[in-house]
Structure formats: structure tokens, C-alpha cells
Design goal:
It contains 7 helices and 10 strands.
């Protein structure tokens, strides 16, 4: 980073990809996961909220604290650390293993803020990231006995050429469309087609 690049960052202030911190504190891991769960970003240690350089310790102890913050996240947040005079810049890459969380929860960058995700938002986030596919979601609202149509399964088996000597529920389990929860059978969204 050059002095000119730093000056432009200071003039622009905090934003979607830039966060200023006066010192290394307990919120650091929160900021790291927020950037990793979004598009990545840069955390500058040694700059206050008024965009003034206050400086910070740049010794091995400070670097070690930053690395510990990153490794305490689950999964580990990918970072690079750059020392620039009396500033530390933490480059946080967009995470490849989203969602990331720290001991305070799941966070994502929205504008110039790192916001905690609610349970509903975490579920949506995981679905959007493709960690839980729509067709694999269990449909507890649809009772197997009421909605399952054996003739549709027979039609599917005939078209695919699958011959089975298994009972219906075992066959559906093998096709990964029937799951048991507390010994009660439920179809997933793919299984609803039957």
C-alpha cells in the first residue's frame, strides 16, 4: 500500500469493504467473519472513527493476537496481515466456506456495518450459499401417509428401469427422498414429487 492509497482510503472512510479500528479488541473476529461472509474487505488497526491515524503496536504480539482472532472463527477466516508504518491492515478474503461464525455469532457486512444474523437469516444464508439444497429440505408439514402416492413411485421406477425388492419406505430412503425424524417418516422436497 502506498501513502496515496492510504490517503484515499482515509478520505473515503469506512464502507462495505473497509473498517477502521483504533486497537485490537474483542470485536475483531466479528469484523473478520462479516467480511468473509460478504465480499471480503480490509480492517485497518490504528485509525479512529474520525478517520484519524492514531497508530497501534505492530510487534509480533499484536500480529499473534490478530492471527488468534482469525483462527478462533469457525471455519478459520483467511487473512493476510500488512504492516504499514504504525498501522496494521488485515486483508480478509471472501470466504470459500461460508458461513463463518465467531464466538459472538454469525455476522455479515451490510454497507459500512457488520450486522448479526438472526436464525432465519442464517438459514436463508446457508440455502443461498448452496450448503442445504432446496430439494433436500425435509417437509415436516406434509405427512407421508397422507401425501405419498405409490402409483407415482411405480411410474418413476418403470421409467428409470429400477427394479427393487425393497419395501416402499426402504426404496424411498435409498433414493434419498425419505428421512426419519423421531421414527416418523418425512419426504423431502424432491420426495414430494411422489
Amino acid at each position: 500500500m502506498t501513502k496515496q492509497e492510504l490517503q484515499l482510503i482515509l478520505e473515503s472512510g469506512e464502507g462495505y469493504t473497509v473498517e477502521f479500528k483504533e486497537n485490537i479488541n474483542t470485536d475483531l473476529s466479528k469484523e473478520m467473519v462479516a467480511f468473509a461472509n460478504a465480499s471480503g474487505g480490509h480492517i485497518f488497526i490504528g485509525i479512529n472513527d474520525d478517520n484519524d491515524i492514531t497508530g497501534t503496536a505492530t510487534d509480533n504480539f499484536a500480529v499473534s493476537r490478530i492471527q488468534n482472532s482469525a483462527s478462533s472463527c469457525d471455519p478459520l477466516v483467511p487473512i493476510d496481515i500488512e504492516i504499514f508504518g504504525n498501522l496494521i491492515c488485515i486483508h480478509v478474503a471472501e470466504g470459500a466456506n461460508k458461513p463463518y461464525r465467531c464466538n459472538k455469532g454469525f455476522f455479515v457486512r451490510r454497507g459500512a456495518n457488520s450486522e448479526k444474523l438472526s436464525t432465519r437469516e442464517i438459514t436463508e444464508f446457508i440455502q443461498i450459499e448452496g450448503k442445504v439444497l432446496f430439494d433436500e429440505r425435509i417437509r415436516e408439514d406434509l405427512h407421508f401417509e397422507k401425501y405419498f402416492d405409490a402409483s407415482l413411485l411405480e411410474g418413476f421406477l418403470e421409467k428409470t428401469g429400477i427394479k427393487s425388492r425393497l419395501d416402499t419406505k426402504s426404496m424411498l430412503s435409498n433414493l434419498s427422498v425419505l428421512k426419519y425424524k423421531n421414527e416418523v417418516p418425512y419426504l423431502n422436497n424432491a420426495g414430494v414429487l411422489f
